[in-house]
Amino acid sequence: MTLKAIGTLALMTSILPLSAIAGPAINQFEVKDLQSSPGEFEFQSQNAYATGQPRRKTDGTNYDDNTFIRQREALEVQVGITDYFRVRVGIEFEQEILDDPVSYSQANRFADLELDELALEGVVVFIKPKKEGIGLGLLIEYGLPVSGGSESQSELYIGPIIEAHTGAWTLIANLAFVQFIGGGGGDAVKDEKLDFSYFLQGKYDFSESFGLALEAYGTIDRLGNSGRRSEESEIFGDFNQHRAGPVAYYTFFPQRSHTTTSQLTTQSDDDAKELSVSVGVGALFGLNENTPDATYKFSLEVEY
Question: Which of 10, 14, 47, 224 is 20 to 30 A from residue 295's alpha carbon, by CA?
């Protein structure tokens, strides 16, 4: 390529509008339930690591805007306000693919793990789930980006939580519309699209301490013609992601070994709160070509 051609290409690139990456909304791999009690405190660590990433598509100049996340670490604190309302605040670290690779050889490289988002969540319980029955609530979650500059977008999740119990089975469905907000800083295209995400769990409790679940997570990228498509979206289209797999949960109660049987039986319901620690380990397998082959999940929840 001649120097004149290089100069012309550089000029055209500076004139064309840039696009903020607005791939499918991929939240934490956690299913929200309807449990809430006033004064209940919970610390959570939600973690995931993905392997077998899909190859990034290119036409030689542009790269697709699928969401590529190799690693995610989240630290959160949840507090029950009443029996029908709880809140959660958290920070999230992510290792994402390079936004603007300088060459095709870097197109599938990942940046370092960095603080990516601050999150605020509220769950409203309309119908509390019973031992045998169905409960209904509402999830509202707002994610505020802390990296990526003015091109980064906030995400607002709103949708129902449905929880059912029968025998040792628990079935939970989170269905959420995801509104992208903001972005478009500088010359970037402002794409305030609407996605749809689902978080599903069918769990069987073998005992108070051990349960085995089948979980599924997915996102439909861009509902209808919402938002303003970037050049990359016009070229490569949308990228739905779907994954599912088994997750095992183990819960133990550190204080029980120090509490006598008589003490347990004389406690009132109001005093029955106790420290519990729950560990979840599982693997979620990609169900289409836009999703990583495997995502390994590890969660730690300390509740009192």
Answer: 224
User: Of all residues in the chain, what percent carry a pLDDT higher than 70?
Assistant: 87
Average pLDDT over residues 198-207: 99
Instruction: Set out the domains of the chain in order of their start, with CATH numbers.
Output: 34-303 (2.40.160.40)
pTM of the model: 0.87
What pLDDT does 187 receive? 62
**Mind giving me the DSSP string for the chain?**
--HHHHHHHHHHHHHSPEE---------S--------TT-EEEEEEEEEEESPPPPPBSSS-B-----EEEEEEEEEEEEEETTEEEEEEEEEEEEB-SS-SSGGGTT-B---EEEEEEEEEEEEEE---SSEEEEEEEEEEEEE-SSGGG-EEEEEEEEEEEEEETTEEEEEEEEEEEEEE---TTEE----EEEEEEEEEEEESSSSEEEEEEEEEEE-S-TT-S---HHHHHH----EEEEEEEEEEEE-TTGGGS-HHHHHH--GGG----EEEEEEEEEEE-STTS-SEEEEEEEEEE-
